[in-house]
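A further point concerns the way the authors explain their paired sequence and structure data. An entry of this sort, consisting of the sequence and the corresponding backbone structure tokens, reads as follows:
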Amino acid sequence: MLLKSLLKEVALEVLEEIQNNDSSTSEKLDTSFTTIEDKFLTREDVSQMLNVSMQTLNNWQKKQILIPLKIGKRVLYKPEDVEKALQKQESNSKNPII
């Protein structure tokens, strides 16, 4: 009961601030809502960025060079994972095993 009344109070305060056109509150609210696409890269994005085919991405997944996340039917990549894979590939090509 206490939690419900606290949540209601907070919600009313937020609505009141929005109605008062407090631009700083509106900006904070706008930036808090992001989509999955804003945080992750699609297979198409990665393919274009790296200039490789979809089959290469599949091969890299099998070899565990670049492992995507699967969210439902979607295959997505973390930008930092793509960067790490690139750095690893670059360091391997500079120091070939003889």
Remarks:
- The helical segments are 2-19, 23-32, 36-39, 43-50, 54-62, 79-94.
- Strands lie at 41-42, 69-71, 74-77.
